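Side project, low priority. Logging it here so it doesn't get lost.
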Amino acid sequence: MRWVCAFWLLTKIITYPLWTAYRLFPTVPVDEILYTIPPVVHLILFIASVICILLFITTANKKVAIALFFFEIASCLLDQNRWQPEIYLFLFLLFCYITVDNEQKRLLCWQIIIVSSYFFSGWFKWDPSFITTVWQRDLLRKFLHIYIQNATIMRLGYGIPICEMLLGVSLCFKAFKRVGLLFIILLHIFNLLWLGPLGLDSNIAVWPLNIIMPLLAINLFWNKNIDWPAFRKPYGILIITLVFWFILPSSNRFGYWDDFLSSEYYGGHTSFCYIDVELSQVPKALHPYFVKKLSVIENPDSVLSVQNWSYGEMNVPVYPSMRMYKKIAAQWQKRYGDSDKIFIIQAPYKKENVLYIGQ
C-alpha cells in the first residue's frame, strides 16, 4: 500500500489545481449546499491529504490511512471532477486496507479490483466510438501516422478490447497468469509511449497509474493465486468489492453507473461538452481552449471545449456524465450570464445526438 500511496501522491501533485477551488473551471459538488464551502477548505483538505500520504508512506499507520480516506472522500464530495478512475482505484484499495485485517482476505479483494480493472477497461472499448476516436484518430493517425481508410485495419482495433479482457481473465488462472502479467507489462509500456512525450503527450495524470498498475499486478499475482474457496462463504468486504467492481460496472451499459467508476479508460464513447460564446466574453486564460467549427454543429465558428478547458487547467478530463455537464452549464450561466448556448454531444460526429442547454 505504501507504493500505491507514493504514486497517489505523484498523481495529486500533477493534478493539484483539481484539488483546489482557486481556478476558473467550476467546482461541482454532489449537493447544492456544498457550493457555500469557501475555497480555503478545498486547499486545507488537499494539504491534509498530502501530509497523510507522506506519513503513511513512512509509517504505514492505519490511523493515518483512515484519516487519509476521510480527507479524500470529503474533498471528492466538494467536486465530482475529482472522481477520476485512478483516484477511485486508489481510494478503494485504501478502503480494503483499512477494513480488512486478514492479509489473505485483503489480498483477494485487491486481486478482484485488478482483474475488474483490466476486464472492464477492455469491455468498454468494445464500441464503434472507440474505433472512430481512440483507434483511428489517436492511435493510427496521431501516433502511428497511418491515414489509410481500410475496413480491415479498422476491425483490427477490436483486438485491443479483446486483449484487455483476456488479460483480466488470465489473472484468474494459475496456468495463464504469468503470461498475462508479461503482456500487462507490455500494455502499460505501450500506453506510456503513446500517451507520453514520445507520443501524444496527453493526460499526464494517468502516467503514474500506468507505472503502478503492472507493479501491483505482479505483486498480487506472480506468486499468489486467487482463493476461489473463499467465494463459498463470502465476507462483507468481499461482497462490497464484488458489487462495486463487477455488478455496478456491468450496469454501466444501461446507464446505472458512471464511466469513470467502471474502469472506463479511453473507451471512446465519452460525451463532449462545448459552450457557444464569443472570445471577447470570456477571460483570456480560456482562449486556448476554443476549437474551430464542428461538423455536427451548424452555427458557431468556434466554441469553448469544456474537455480542453479541464485538461488545460486541471490536467484531467472532465467527469463525463450528463448531470455534470448540466451543473457546469448552470455555473457558467450564473457566472457569465444566461444568454450563451451550451451543447453536449452524446456521441461523436452524430447530429442527432446533440443536446442543447440554455437560450
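Brief comment: Residues 272-358 form one domain.
Revisit when time allows.
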